[in-house]
Every structure is written in C-alpha cells, then in structure tokens.
Write a structure and sequence with these properties.
Elements lengths: L5 H29 L4 H7 L3 H25 L2 E10 L3 E8 L13 H18 L4 E8 L3 E8 L2 H9 L13 H12 L5 E8 L8 H10 L2 E7 L6 E2 L1 E3 L5 E4 L9 E2 L3 H10 L4 E3 L5 H11 L8 E9 L2 H16 L6 H57 L3 H14 L4 H13 L3 H13 L5 H17 L3 H14 L4 H15 L33 H9 L9 H12 L24
Parallel strand pairs: 2-3, 2-5, 5-6, 6-11
Antiparallel strand pairs: 1-12, 3-4, 7-10, 8-9
Helix pairs in contact: 1-3, 3-10, 4-5, 4-9, 6-7, 7-8, 11-12, 11-13, 12-13, 13-14, 13-15, 14-15, 15-16, 16-17, 17-19
C-alpha cells in the first residue's frame, strides 16, 4: 500500500510527458540529420552502438522518473509499534476579568497587576527544563477556554496580552465555573496538573470550594493569587480614552466598594493541595509559585502506542539515484570516456600555472576575510578598554564616544552597549541610559548577569527622574534574575518607601540616591554603574532620620516585606466570613 497514492496519478502524467519529450527529441534529431543527407546513408556512417546507447539512456531516465514518484507515494508494508509521550507538566491560567478587577487599590489596577504577574509566570515556565503545556481560561459571570493547552508559549503570551475587563458578555464573577472548566480540561492528562487562579476572591454563588475539592479528586492542584487590598476601593468606569466616567453602583444607587477576600482564595488552595499568595509589589510570590509547580508529582506523561505501517520510500529513492548515476556514466558512443579523459588532462596541463595563481588568490582572500574579523574584534576590545579607562578617569563624554566606536565595530555585543548606558547615566541623560540598558538586554545571547545589572541600572535611572513605580519594577526584575543581590533589595525598599511617601520638592535639596552596586558588562569589567559617590552615601545615612527619609526601622520593615518569601497560607484568617453576594451583582 502507499501512504500518498495520489502521487501515482502524477506518475502516469510525468511518465507520459517524458516519453513524449524523448520522442520529440528523436524526431527533431532525424529532421536535422536529413538536412545533411539521406538517413540510410548516414546510418551506415555512424557506429551502430550509438542508437542503442541512446535508447538505453532514455529507458534509464524513464526508470528514474518512475522510482522518484514511487518514493513520493510512500510505499508501506509490514507493521511496527509506535509510542509517543506528551508533556508531564500542564498548567492552566484562570484569569478573573470581572469589573471588580478594575479597582485601583493596587497600582495600576488589579487586572493590570495580574497581567504583569502572568508575564512572569509564562517566562518562568519557559525557563524550566521540561516543556510545559499551558492554557488560558478567562472568567467573569461565565468561564471560557481562551487558549487550549499548548507548548507554543508565544501564542499563550498573545492571548494574555488581549485580556481586558468585562471581555465576556455575562457580568459577575463565577470562580466555581472556572475551576470546573479547568477540571474538565486537565482530567485527561497525567502527571503534574496545575491550575493558577488569579482573582480578587469575589464569587457569586458558584461554590468554588466544592469545585476545588472536585479538582483535587482528579489530581489537580489549585494555586491562587489574590489581587487587591482588604480595605478595598470603588470600581472606576472609564471611556475608551481612559477618562473616568463614574464609579460602579449597585441597585440601590450606592457606590460599590470591592475588597480582596483572601479567605475564599485560601480555602480553594487548601482544599486542592495548592497554596495561596497575595500579590505583592516585589512579585516574590512568582518564584515561590514556580518552585511549587516544579516540585509537583513526577510522571513520564501520557504514553500512547499505535500500530503503524513501516515506510520503505528509501528503497525506490536509492534505486532512482543508482539509475541516474548509471545513465550519467553511459556515453552515447564507444571511446567517449577516453576522449573526455584525454581532453581533461590537456586542459589541466594548459591551465596548471593559472590554477596555482588562482589557489593563491583564493587562499589570501580567505585569509583576509578571517583577518578582517579578527581586526574588527580587536578594534572593539581596544575601544572598550579605552572607554573603560576614560570612564575611570571620570571623562564620561569621551568614554561614551569610545563605547560608540566599539558598538559600531561589534553591534551584536552587549558589553559596549551596556557601558554606553553607564556613560549616559553619569552625564545625567537618564532616558538615554535606560534605552541603552534595555537594548543591551535584548541582544541575542546576553548573559543573565548582564540582564540583572541592566534592570538594576534602569531602576537607578528611573529613580533619578523620581519615577519610583518604574524604579521599583526594574529593581524587582533585577531581583528575579539575581535573588541574592542585597543592593537591588535595598534600592527596591527605598523606591517602595518613596512611592508611598514622596519627598517634598525643595530647591537645592539632594536626592536620597539608591544604594550603590558594583558590576558591569565589559571585559575588562566596566566601571561600576553607581548613581552617587560613597561620600554622598555617608551623608545620606547621616541624614536618613530626617523627615521623609528612610529610617533604619522603616528600612528593616520594608526589607522584611520584600524578602519574606513564605506563602501566607498559614496566616490567621480575618474574623468573620464575607456576606453572601446579593442577586444581580454584575462585578
């Protein structure tokens, strides 16, 4: 039998076409020969084996065509067992898109915060050794599978980027329905099955606790991430331009205040063997979440066996190659091979001096190409060292020019780009510095150490512009790539403190710069990307007890919240239970 029998039809067409071409060629040859004389007379002058050899070559060509199309048709016979394995780690992301996720009690909003954490989750799963199948569920008053389970993480990221509040037609919040849908989706799979639920904990009578128990019965662990604060806030309704129109009201006309309900999310996690975290500014909970998923039950995944026919297309393909080689070696007349060999020897004798010159030319051309590459690399290293020396001498403008020359010599090397960002920073061009650090991170093959340092320096640049939210986000990303960086942890604490307690804007007032950090991406190592000198830091420490400065007690308290990586599933729940959601709630 054949895997693609349709090619047999094309075989008949191709065979007929080649046969017609051969016949036309013979006819054309006879017409040309007739112009030189009588064909019978010419036949006596030609050697008899010429026509026979020509016919053999034509038959071999037809045989090659037949065998090639037989190979394309895919001959199969015999049966063998085939086994396949699916990924043992499957993860579903369930995202709450109800109106309550628009509440801005966390910056910039609960939903935007959830989307930021989703990006980190997908990036973290991408770095795991075992490829994971990831899917996306969105829910409000109903739940739907926005992205089926797939290993194409770019497709997952595209779906997550399109998530917005109230994207489903049914208003409200139905966490139980989302968990039930996840159970139906994950049940056929074996191994490490996980559901990550991102919500503020609101639910309108869909019994998420019972749904979590059902998920646990199918071997599914539910991890919950809570967004918002227990104090809560109103739900802003905005137009397409982002302008506030009004705040969401209930049926009685009262402004709705939604709160984070950690007890509901914690109950879901505990009943399914998962864990609960409240989303934090540092996003440390993501690393803990990824660790728990990686430590899940080990399995080889779903293994399937099937009886399939053995493919034997290589047999006709090999025969076709053999016939083609034979056809090529058969001359149309006897002694042709000897004539070709003799002609080749004469050609070599005539062109031997030229060939020596040609070989030398080729050799020196290749040598020149390799030398140009080495010279370009050496030039880049020279410019980089010169830039580092100038930077160390505090000649930042001159060092920047040297780094730019190094970038031109090696545009795909992240080191001079990173160092150019350092020089921009020293010159007070913080926007250009951030762009340079960002570009250095995006260079293919940039090491993780350089990426962590780049995020750190982007945070320093944002801090200098009093953009404390952007600075905190950059320091947080630096800590994710390098959790053992005390400088990034310190600067993150400073940025978070200033985000809550901005310093008053006074003339001639020195900024409280973040803590310095050593490091860099150059080779030799570039000058440390420091926002201030050590003497300035001493002055800052002496004045740290002044108003709106970060005291030691404040720093210790903020740092403890930054570095506390224990999930709060064991924390005491708030007393009392939330009141039952009234009918008609659409947020």
């Amino acid at each position: 039998m054949f895997r693609n029998p349709f090619y047999l039809l094309w075989l008949a067409i191709a065979f007929a076409a080649v046969w017609i071409l051969i016949r036309l060629g013979n006819s054309k040859r006879e017409k040309i020969s007739a112009q030189f004389g009588n064909l019978s007379t010419l036949a006596r002058l030609l050697k008899p084996e010429t026509s026979r050899r020509r016919n053999i070559k034509s038959l071999l060509q037809l045989g090659v065509i037949v065998l090639l199309f037989l190979a394309l048709a895919g001959p199969q016979w015999g049966i063998e067992l085939s086994s396949s394995k699916s990924s043992s780690q499957v993860v579903l992301l369930a995202v709450d898109t109800s109106l309550s996720m628009l509440t801005e009690d966390v910056s910039p909003s609960r939903l935007e915060k959830a989307r930021n954490e989703l990006d980190l989750i997908v990036s973290g799963l991408k770095e795991e050794g075992t490829p994971a199948r990831i899917g996306v569920i969105v829910f409000s008053g109903q739940a739907t599978l926005a992205c089926p389970l797939t290993t194409d993480l770019s497709a997952v990221s595209d779906v997550l980027s399109d998530i917005h509040a109230d994207m489903l037609p049914t208003p409200g919040t139905a966490m139980g329905n989302a968990i039930n849908l996840a159970t139906q989706t994950l049940s056929p799979y074996a191994g490490n099955k996980n559901l990550i639920l991102l919500s503020d904990g609101g639910d309108h009578g869909t019994h998420p606790g019972e749904a979590a128990q059902e998920a646990a019965a199918h071997g599914i662990r539910v991890f919950t991430l809570g967004f918002g604060t227990t104090e809560g806030g109103p739900i802003p309704i905005k137009d397409a331009s982002g302008n506030l129109i009004r705040y969401q009201k209930n049926k009685s006309g009262t402004t709705v205040i939604t709160h984070l309900r950690p007890e509901i999310l914690q109950k879901i996690a505990s009943k399914s063997g998962g864990n609960y975290w409240q989303a934090s500014a540092t996003q440390d909970e993501i690393s803990d979440l990824l660790k728990e998923i990686a430590q899940g039950p080990k399995s080889k995944g779903i293994e399937e066996t099937a009886h399939v026919y053995k493919n034997h297309f290589l047999i006709p393909l090999s025969l076709a190659f053999l016939l083609l080689l034979i056809e090529f070696l058969i001359p149309e007349k006897r002694g042709a091979l000897e004539e070709i060999s003799k002609s080749g020897k004469n050609f070599i004798k005539k062109t031997r001096p030229v060939k020596k010159e040609t070989a030398l030319l080729i050799f020196f051309t290749l040598l020149q190409i390799s030398l140009l590459g080495s010279i370009a690399k050496a030039g880049m290293e020279s410019d980089l060292r010169q830039g580092n020396n100038l930077y160390g001498a505090k000649q930042y403008a001159a060092s920047l020019n040297a780094y730019i020359s190094a970038i031109k010599a090696s545009p795909n090397n992240p080191k001079p780009i990173f160092n150019a960002g350092d020089a921009f920073y020293r010159l007070g061009k913080y926007g250009s510095a951030s762009k340079a650090f960002t570009h250095a991170m995006k260079v293919q093959g940039a090491p993780q150490v350089l990426k962590s340092a780049a995020y750190y320096n982007i945070g320093n640049s944002a801090f200098q512009k009093s953009q404390y939210a952007e600075a905190a986000a950059a320091y947080r990303n630096s800590l994710i790539l390098n959790p053992n960086s005390p400088e990034a942890a310190h600067n993150l604490a400073v940025a978070l403190h200033y985000l809550k307690h901005p310093p008053p804007k006074k003339k001639n007032q020195k900024k409280n710069n973040p803590k310095n950090k050593k490091g860099g991406g150059g080779n030799p190592p570039p000058p440390p990307p420091r926002p201030s000198s050590s003497q300035q830091n001493q002055k800052q420490q002496q004045s740290s007890q002044s108003q709106n400065q970060l005291s030691k007690d404040d720093l210790r308290r903020v740092l403890s919240s930054v570095t506390d990586k224990k999930p709060n599933t064991n924390q005491q729940l708030q007393k009392g239970s939330p009141s039952k959601a009234p009918d008609g709630e659409d947020w």
